[in-house]
Design goal:
The protein is of the alpha+beta class. Among the domains are: 49 residues, 2-Layer Sandwich (Uridine Diphospho-n-acetylenolpyruvylglucosamine Reductase, domain 2); 94 residues, CO dehydrogenase flavoprotein, C-terminal domain (Enolase-like, domain 1, 2-Layer Sandwich). Helix content is 31%, strand content 24%. The protein is built from ten helices and 14 strands. The strands form four sheets. Strands 4-5-10-6-7 form a five-stranded antiparallel sheet. A hairpin with a 7-residue loop joins strand 13 and strand 14. Helix 3 packs antiparallel against helix 4. It starts with a strand and ends with a helix. 44% of the residues are buried.
Length: 261
C-alpha cells in the first residue's frame, strides 16, 4: 500500500467536510473492496475517511409508511439477523463468508456497485430509495452501469429505505471461489406489480428484466416465463461462463425465485 492518512469522524457532517477538503480523500465503508484495491496499488488516495464510527449511519428500523430503513454503515450480518424483510435477510446471509458479512456494509456495497454484488438487485427489485447526505435517489435512477452510480464526488449513502413487498425471493448461482453471483435474480411482488432485477449477468451491471415483470404481473407463477427468452447480447463472458450460459441462468433463477416466493 501507499502511505495515507486515516480519519474516523463520528458525524456525517464531519465526514462530508473531510471528503470535500481534498480531491484525494476517499470514503471507507467496510473496506471489502477498497482495502484489496489499495494492497494491489490500484488506488492511492492521500486520505481515507472511515464511516465505521458514525452511529447515526447504523441500525435498522421502520418508518411511518412501513418501509424498512437500513443505515448505510449497517453490516451484512446485521441485515441477515434482522428478519423484518425475510428475502433481504436471507440474501444478506449468503454474501461472502462470516468475515465479509461482519465487516462489509450495505452502503459500501451500493456505492461500489460491483456488477456481481447482491444488494443492487435487492434495491432495484424492491424499488428502494437510496438516501445520501444531500438527497434521496430512487432505485431506477441510482444505478448507471458497471461500477457506476448517480452519486456525486464526496456524497455518502446514509440510509436505504426498502418498501417490503407482498412476496419476494432471491436466487443466486454463485461463483464458488469468490461467492459473488455468477448470476443472481431478485423477484419482488408489490401491490402494483412485479419487479425482477438481475445481477452478475450483464456488462451494463444490474438491470430489470421487463418482459418477465409484465408476464409475472399477470400471472405470478414460474409457468408465466415459459415462452420468454433472454438475449445474450450484453451478457458477460468470462472463464466462469459464457454470455449464453448467463442468459439461460437468468430465466432459470427467475423461475426458481418465483416458486420460492
Amino acid at each position: 500500500m501507499y502511505n495515507f492518512d486515516l480519519e474516523r469522524p463520528t458525524r456525517v457532517a464531519d465526514a462530508v467536510k473531510l471528503l470535500s477538503d481534498s480531491v484525494e480523500s476517499q470514503p471507507l465503508g467496510g473496506g471489502q473492496t477498497l482495502i484489496p484495491t489499495l494492497k494491489q496499488r490500484l488506488a492511492s488516495p492521500d486520505r481515507l475517511v472511515s464511516l465505521g464510527a458514525i452511529d447515526e449511519m447504523k441500525g435498522i428500523c421502520q418508518d411511518d409508511s412501513g418501509r424498512l430503513c437500513i443505515g448505510g454503515a449497517t453490516t451484512h450480518a446485521a441485515v441477515a439477523a434482522d428478519g423484518s424483510y425475510p428475502a433481504l435477510s436471507a440474501m444478506a446471509s449468503h454474501i461472502g463468508d462470516p468475515a465479509v458479512r461482519n465487516r462489509g456494509t450495505i452502503g459500501g456495497s451500493l456505492a461500489n456497485n460491483d456488477p456481481a454484488a447482491c444488494y443492487p438487485s435487492a434495491v432495484l427489485a424492491s424499488n428502494a430509495t437510496v438516501v445520501t447526505n444531500a438527497r434521496e435517489i430512487a432505485a431506477d435512477d441510482y444505478f448507471e452501469g458497471m461500477f457506476s452510480t448517480a452519486l456525486d464526488e464526496g456524497e455518502i449513502i446514509t440510509e436505504v429505505k426498502f418498501p417490503v413487498p407482498e412476496k419476494a425471493n432471491y436466487q443466486k448461482f454463485l461463483q464458488p471461489a469468490s461467492r459473488f453471483a455468477l448470476v443472481g435474480v431478485f423477484v419482488a411482488k408489490h401491490s402494483d406489480g412485479v419487479r425482477v432485477a438481475v445481477t452478475g449477468a450483464s456488462n451494463n451491471g444490474v438491470f430489470r428484466w421487463s418482459e418477465a415483470e409484465a408476464a409475472l404481473s399477470s400471472d405470478f407463477s414460474a409457468g408465466a416465463l415459459s415462452d420468454l427468452t433472454v438475449s445474450a447480447d450484453d451478457m458477460i463472458t468470462d472463464l466462469h461462463g459464457s454470455a449464453a450460459y448467463r442468459a439461460h441462468l437468468v430465466k432459470v433463477l427467475t423461475g426458481r425465485a418465483v416458486s420460492a416466493a
